[in-house]
From TrEMBL:
PANTHER family named in the record: ATP SYNTHASE DELTA CHAIN (PTHR11910)
Pfam family, one: OSCP
Record key words, sorted: ATP synthesis, Cell membrane, CF(1), Hydrogen ion transport, Ion transport, Membrane, Transport
Protein name: ATP synthase subunit delta
Length: 179
């Protein structure tokens, strides 16, 4: 299971939260649930998915476990339980955060480089892509990848912008082989 599988639940939850101006509160509650569930993921999911647990008992357990959370969060988890999709619960926060960030024009980017970049270098790269993609903000993470030889490779969502020397050398190689 993955974030993509949980995205429809996250989108519905976000739409409801946005309608009631609770999107930040929902994000905060989902983070707390995410941390709690992931700390005990296997045992929690085994209990709530137990075949001998009645639907009413499952819903009661969800209400007691997450009763402090926003009612839209609890209702979404109950819908997931009704659809036998509680295995997606560990991914709900990340999927919601993705939908939340998309709404605000925020994306996450991974910048691969041959050495650890300075914050100013990351900021400059971020500014270029914020303007290029029409975003409000880009949350940057730097990963060192010596196999690039030089340059950078930037991953934003599913798109890759590759300015690495390794790729440029491979492109040259392909052109030479064709001629």
């Amino acid at each position: 299971m993955s974030i993509q599988s949980a995205k429809s639940y996250a989108q519905s939850l976000f739409d409801t939260a946005l309608k009631h101006d609770k999107e930040k509160k929902v994000l905060k509650d989902l983070l707390a649930i995410h941390d709690s569930v992931n700390a005990q993921k296997k045992s929690y999911l085994n209990v709530v998915n137990h075949p001998k647990l009645s639907k009413d008992a499952r819903m009661d357990m969800i209400s007691k476990s997450f009763g402090e959370a926003n009612k839209y969060v609890v209702n979404t988890i109950k819908v997931m339980a009704s659809n036998n999709k509680l295995d997606l619960l560990p991914y709900l926060y990340e999927a919601y955060e993705e939908v939340y960030n998309e709404h605000l024009g925020i994306r996450k980017a991974t910048v691969e480089s041959t050495y650890k970049l300075f914050e100013t270098e990351l900021e400059r790269i971020g500014q270029v892509f914020v303007q290029k993609l029409g975003l409000n903000k880009l949350i940057m993470k730097n990963e060192v990848n010596p196999s690039l030889i030089g340059g950078v490779r930037i991953k934003i969502d599913t798109k890759v912008y590759d300015g690495s020397i390794k790729t440029k050398l491979n492109d040259i190689k392909q052109r030479v082989v064709r001629h």
